[in-house]
TrEMBL record:
Pathway: Pyrimidine metabolism; UMP biosynthesis via salvage pathway; UMP from uridine: step 1/1; Pyrimidine metabolism; CTP biosynthesis via salvage pathway; CTP from cytidine: step 1/3. One of its GO terms (molecular function) is ATP binding. It comes from Brevibacillus composti. NCBIfam families: PRK05480.1, udk. It comes from the Bacteria. ATP binds at G11, G12, S13, G14, S15, G16, K17, T18. InterPro entries: P-loop_NTPase, PRK/URK, Uridine_kinase, Uridine_kinase-like. Belongs to the uridine kinase family. This is Uridine kinase. The gene is udk.
Length: 214
């Protein structure tokens, strides 16, 4: 295995970045690809009560254990397997179990704030920002948080207005400037996905050629 290609897919909550990342993942399944979600690296909060955990600002860069994410990325790039944490959105903390992730040729990093930390950003070959209007993002978030994350409508709306929206404007939106590619409306933008996968294959090939000759 040569040096892997690292692709970052950032964007606000509900932007469709997970769909973009999963579509890319699907296109590379014949090759060797792995996906690392920044959500898995929310800090462990098992030392706090559930009430205290519910009060945490999960949209601030401090909420993430970027040191561990960076370390895991370095390990994968170095050809070593990692034990990726698993996050529980209902209990607001890390689970006891982890999942083993083997090193692969293509690494997709997906998450709201992955372009915010320069150390992680600098390890990416392609930086993508999925840019979706705020009304679409909040509608998607309401549906998802109620269906999948055990939340009430009231709590989703309050959290959005008091935390998610201001943090988006302060921390996520400004990282758009670091992106190589801005994908409007995320999700199933076929043209953008095809362009991205062609570029990823090119870089993969280049790295494999360099690997052969070094
Ligand atoms: O998948 P997505 O990028 O939307 O996940 C990030 C969002 O999850 C953040 O906007 C944050 O508000 C929310 N979150 C939460 N409760 C947690 C951890 C994160 O509502 N315990």
């Amino acid at each position: 295995m040569g040096h892997p290609v690292v692709i970052g897919v950032a964007g606000g909550s509900g932007s469709g970045k997970t769909t973009v990342a999963r579509e890319l993942f699907r296109q590379f399944q014949n090759d060797s690809v792995t996906m690392i979600e920044q959500d898995s690296y929310y800090k462990d909060q098992s030392h706090l009560s559930l009430e205290e955990r519910a009060l945490t600002n999960y949209d601030h860069p401090f909420a993430f254990d970027n040191d561990l994410m960076l370390h895991h990325l370095q390990e994968l790039i170095g050809g070593r397997a990692i034990d990726k944490p698993i996050y529980d959105f209902k209990l607001h903390t890390r689970k006891q179990e982890t999942v083993r992730v083997e090193p692969k040729d293509v690494i997709i990093l997906e998450g709201m704030l992955i372009l915010e930390d320069a150390r992680i950003r600098d390890m990416m070959d392609i930086k993508v920002f999925v840019d979706t209007d705020a009304d679409v993002r909040i509608v998607r978030r309401i549906v998802r948080d109620i269906e999948e994350r055990g939340r009430s409508l009231d709590s989703v709306v309050n959290q959005y207005l008091s935390i998610v929206r201001p943090m988006h404007l302060q921390f996520i939106e400004p990282t758009k400037r670091y992106a190589d590619v801005i994908v409007p409306e995320g999700g199933y933008n076929r043209v953008a996905l095809d362009l991205l996968s062609t570029k990823i294959r090119d870089i993969l090939l280049e790295k494999q050629q360099v690997g052969k000759h070094s």
